[in-house]
């Protein structure tokens, strides 16, 4: 069964246009060596019809003819079924107004597929890994992590709906200097709890969360750690703080509706896998020694300079671990690697692309989604601090204040390459000014309509649905699979938040213009069928966004 009637309609239009061109060529009306690539799109203005094509202008140079004349020839030879009206506009655009039968069939398709409506197969089962969040386990997740977390999670859901085999992964940066600082910070706070006087250096983690970790540590060990040697004390604090913080990160993400298929520890790369990865690049001729350090020839692949991978003291750089990590990803057989990074990592992209190429893979095997920063606003003023964390606003603080649904919606309501102003007061407002409330209210209103209806939804008389508001709503429902395709291909979930809002708007317009419960049972049954289809599609898009679809509000 065809799961995307809109794509089928477009394919039929393109096929009919191709046939009309072939006929014109055969009859000698046009001189073309072959049929050029044909595309159709939905015009922005309703008066231009349901679809339009610039085929006549695309063929003009080859045919040596005025594009409007070519359009007239195409129209004269056009025999596509399902077209109610065809016209020519401007310099040669061909506009199509379709019969409504396909919209009625699409309502039936929604009813049949239910939760599967909208799913497509453009991914064809290709294996994709999306790595996101990957924050150091040295403190709570903050607002910046939150946006990347939702972007990664929703991108994964959208790509799954588009037919990709997707795996979500969190890369745990649990090696290196930041873990030593966490150990020192925890030990100092632990000693303070034990009654010792301490002085906090400037470079330790100073947030209240470190005190909480130290309190947990004290509950576990009492004062026993003080009996150990200094290095042993640090080792105990490092491992305890790491496990404690990692567990809290997992809990915060789960509360935010985000679960990972795999948690990958950086520590597993040291030292064997890092050495193996460097050896692979050395064998390919991309590693050289200079000043007792090992360098990667990243400049051969577009980076602005070569990069150190093993320092002169024999210790690996951060890049060395990333090289080993990405080789591991490639060896796991993914067709596409997608990393969701913060804007501060933008300069790191060329060297990682260079790594992928050096290993013998196409540059585009690795794709980076750069997520811009979030500004939290309260009463129009930018927020700066969090009492609890000491230097940032945590993921949990925002989620608890505005709710998970609102937080997820707001984090992805703008393109990832745009800075985001998150208005906390607006996100809590129960009014049409709040976009997530507006969308969820549409779903709840539909439930109320269906629950209070005196008859059942009926598909026998869908031809009665001809009011412009009904047609607009049906077209909006039919475009859902294409919206998934657009979002999956662009890796931009904001297309779906915009679609959810536009669908809610189309439903509210329908509700205000068309009474559902009328004296005409046939019309009421058809409208209820449309309403139920709108409910299903709203539920489907909200599910992809990880947002609840309430039955009442």
UniProtKB/TrEMBL annotation:
HAMAP family: Arg_tRNA_synth
Subcellular location: Cytoplasm
Keywords, in A-Z order: Aminoacyl-tRNA synthetase, ATP-binding, Cytoplasm, Ligase, Nucleotide-binding, Protein biosynthesis
A molecular-function term among this protein's GO annotations: ATP binding
Protein name per its UniProtKB record: Arginine--tRNA ligase
GO terms for cellular component: cytoplasm
Gene that specifies this protein: argS
Reaction(s) catalysed (UniProt annotation): tRNA(Arg) + L-arginine + ATP = L-arginyl-tRNA(Arg) + AMP + diphosphate
UniProt KW Transmembrane helix keyword: no
An individual GO BP term: arginyl-tRNA aminoacylation
Record-linked CDD domains: Anticodon_Ia_Arg, ArgRS_core
UniProt key word Ribonucleoprotein: no
Subunit-level organization: Monomer.
Domain DALR anticodon binding: 439-553
EC class of the enzyme, as a word: ligase
EC number: 6.1.1.19
Motif, 'HIGH' region: chain positions: 135-145
Pfam families named among the record's database cross-references: Arg_tRNA_synt_N (PF03485), DALR_1 (PF05746), tRNA-synt_1d (PF00750)
Domain of life: Bacteria
Family: Belongs to the class-I aminoacyl-tRNA synthetase family.
Residues annotated as domain Arginyl tRNA synthetase N-terminal: 11-98
């Amino acid at each position: 069964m065809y799961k995307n009637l809109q794509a089928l309609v477009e394919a039929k239009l393109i096929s009919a246009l191709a046939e009309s061109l072939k006929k014109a060529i055969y009859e000698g009306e046009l001189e073309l060596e072959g049929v050029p690539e044909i595309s159709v799109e939905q015009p922005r203005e309703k008066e231009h019809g349901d679809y339009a094509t610039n085929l006549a202008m695309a063929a003009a140079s080859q045919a040596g003819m005025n594009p409007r004349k070519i359009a007239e020839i195409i129209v004269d030879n056009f025999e596509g079924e399902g077209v109610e009206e065809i016209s020519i506009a401007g310099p040669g655009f061909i506009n199509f107004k379709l019969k409504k039968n396909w919209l009625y069939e699409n309502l039936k398709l929604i009813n049949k597929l239910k939760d599967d409506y909208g799913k497509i197969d453009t991914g064809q089962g290709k294996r994709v890994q999306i790595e996101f969040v990957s924050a150091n386990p040295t403190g709570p997740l903050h607002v910046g992590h939150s946006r990347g977390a939702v972007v990664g999670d929703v991108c994964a859901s959208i790509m799954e709906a588009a037919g990709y085999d997707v795996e979500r992964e969190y890369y745990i940066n649990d090696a290196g200097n930041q873990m030593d600082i966490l150990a020192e910070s925890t030990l100092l706070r632990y000693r303070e709890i034990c009654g010792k006087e301490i002085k906090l250096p400037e470079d330790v983690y100073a947030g209240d969360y470190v005190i909480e970790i130290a309190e947990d540590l004290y509950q576990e060990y009492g004062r026993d750690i003080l009996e150990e040697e200094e290095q042993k004390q640090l080792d105990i604090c490092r491992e305890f703080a790491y496990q404690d913080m990692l567990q809290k990160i997992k809990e915060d993400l789960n509360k935010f509706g985000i679960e990972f298929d795999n948690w990958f520890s950086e520590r597993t790369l040291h030292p064997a896998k890092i050495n193996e990865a460097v050896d692979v690049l050395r064998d390919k001729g991309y590693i050289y020694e200079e000043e007792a350090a090992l360098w990667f020839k990243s400049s051969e692949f577009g980076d602005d300079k070569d990069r150190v991978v093993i320092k002169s003291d024999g210790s690996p750089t951060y890049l060395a671990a990333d090289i080993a990590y990405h080789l591991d990803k490639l060896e796991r057989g993914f067709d596409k690697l997608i990393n969701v990074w913060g804007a501060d990592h933008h300069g790191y992209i060329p060297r990682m692309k260079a790594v992928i190429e050096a290993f013998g893979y196409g540059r585009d095997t690795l794709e980076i989604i750069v997520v811009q920063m979030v500004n939290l606003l309260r009463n129009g003023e930018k927020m700066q601090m969090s009492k609890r964390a000491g230097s940032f606003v945590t993921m949990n603080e925002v989620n608890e204040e505005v709710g998970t649904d609102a937080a997820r919606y707001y984090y992805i309501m703008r393109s990832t390459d745009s800075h985001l102003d998150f208005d906390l007061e607006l996100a809590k407002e129960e009014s049409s000014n709040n976009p997530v409330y507006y969308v969820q209210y549409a779903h709840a209103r539909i439930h109320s309509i269906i629950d209070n209806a005196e008859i059942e939804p009926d598909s026998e008389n869908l031809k009665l649905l001809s009011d412009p508001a009904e047609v607009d709503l049906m077209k909006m429902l039919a475009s859902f699979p294409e919206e998934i395709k657009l979002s999956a291909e662009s890796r931009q979930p904001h297309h779906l938040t915009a679609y959810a809002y536009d669908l809610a708007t189309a439903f509210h317009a329908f509700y205000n213009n068309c009474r559902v419960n009328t004296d005409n049972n046939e019309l009421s049954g058809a409208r209820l069928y449309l309403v139920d289809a709108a409910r299903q599609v709203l539920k489907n898009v909200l599910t992809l966004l990880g947002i609840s679809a309430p039955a009442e509000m």
